[in-house]
Amino acid sequence: MIKYSRRLALQQRVLPSYRIPFFDLLAQSCESMSLFAGMPRPVEMIASGKLQIAKYHEAKNIHLFSGAFYLCYQNGFISWLEEWNPDSLIVEANPRYLSTPSAIRWMHSRGRGVIGWGLGAPKGNAVWSRFINQFDAMLAYSQRGAEEYAALGFPREKIFVAHNSASPAPTFDLQPSTFNLQPTILFVGRLQARKRIDSLLRACAEMESKPRLIIVGDGPERAALESLARDVYPAAEFAGAKHGAEIKPYFAEADLFVLPGTGGLAVQEAMSHGLPVIVAKGDGTQDDLVREGNGWQINPDDYGALVTAMKNALSDTARLRRMGAESFRIVSEEINIQKMADAFVLALNSLD
User: Fold this and answer.
1) Gap between the Cα atoms of 174 and 96, Å rounded
2) Is there a single domain that holds both residue 326 and residue 342?
3) What is the CATH number of the domain that holds 311?
């Protein structure tokens, strides 16, 4: 484990539960670490968690407007910095967070470095260019994000890619595939419109060898999806929300993981169980995770591409097993929270 032998401060708008393992792991790599984050809006339905190793200081989030005009001011940012007195600060690289510039100035006035962490930035956007060039280094979720920061003039040598991850490297051996005459397709995630589960139901109905379809999760679209399933694919199984150990048997039973809409960190967990994956293209994190060797990327609104990818996947059992093994290798060796923490520490140590 690479170490950062100084005090770290890390800002987030909110503290989602899926980030807890990463933040605690990063805290183990530092002399000490404090995280500053506030509460989400009720409409976001973000599950929060409790840190075990990193210290936590609650921000007072003031949410302004919504949608494309959303802004957030985090009251208490400077007071927290004065109290914690960090050697370095990592913040979410988002110009919508109005208290960030004053925190950057506070750190720079004391000769201390600030790192931005984000998905990337819009091409040719002057506001974003000015914003990111306040930072001393950048952490990008993906290689695409890193290229976007570089395109806005940020020095390439100060950009670090920390592949977005919420899962540790698997600590178990890859289990043999159970693929048989009826393959099992798995979806895990929140049941909401942008996940395109309706498309998955219809696509299963078009498969020559009708797969077993297991849908794990809950959400506002569940009743509508169950109603649709009765019409287009009655064999679909709705397992409800599952977490932790109770979700593992579903991954063990599956032969293929499909995420037809945007978002979803369950892809990495599926890969850690040796599953090939079909995912919709999104913010660039999928580009590094899903490759020709272990899956397919499709456009989220292209139903025809989903059907084609599923038929292709299920047409060759031996290839599907090889792709599952490659998924397992990727999350074991390349993309997991330990590798992500190492990238953060490399960026921190570059500030010296």
Assistant:
1) 43
2) no
3) 3.40.50.2000
- The answer to whether position 274 is within a domain reads yes
Q: Which of 78, 37, 34 is nearest to 60 (CA)?
A: 37
178 located within any domain? no
Backbone angles phi, psi at 308, to 5 degrees: -60, -45
Angle of CA points 222, 268, 117, to nearest 5°: 100
* Spatial distance between the Cα atoms of 342 and 181, rounded to a whole number of angstroms: 43
Domain that holds residue 66: 4-166+336-349
Read out DSSP for 22-74?
A: HHHHHHHTEEEEEEEEEPPPGGG-PPB---SSSEEEE-EEEEES-GGG-EEEE
Same domain, 343 and 329: no
Structural domain total, the chain: 2
- Reduce the DSSP state of residue 278 to 3 states and report it: strand
Question: What is the residue-level pLDDT of the chain in tens, covering all 352 positions?
Answer: 789 999 999 999 999 998 999 999 999 999 999 999 999 998 887 888 899 999 999 999 999 999 999 999 999 999 999 999 999 999 999 999 999 999 999 999 999 999 999 999 999 999 999 999 999 999 999 999 999 999 999 999 999 999 999 889 988 777 666 666 689 999 999 899 989 999 999 999 999 989 999 999 998 999 999 999 999 999 999 999 998 889 999 999 999 999 998 776 789 999 999 999 999 987 677 888 999 999 999 998 899 999 999 999 999 989 999 999 999 999 999 999 999 999 999 999 999 8
One domain, residues 215 and 243: yes
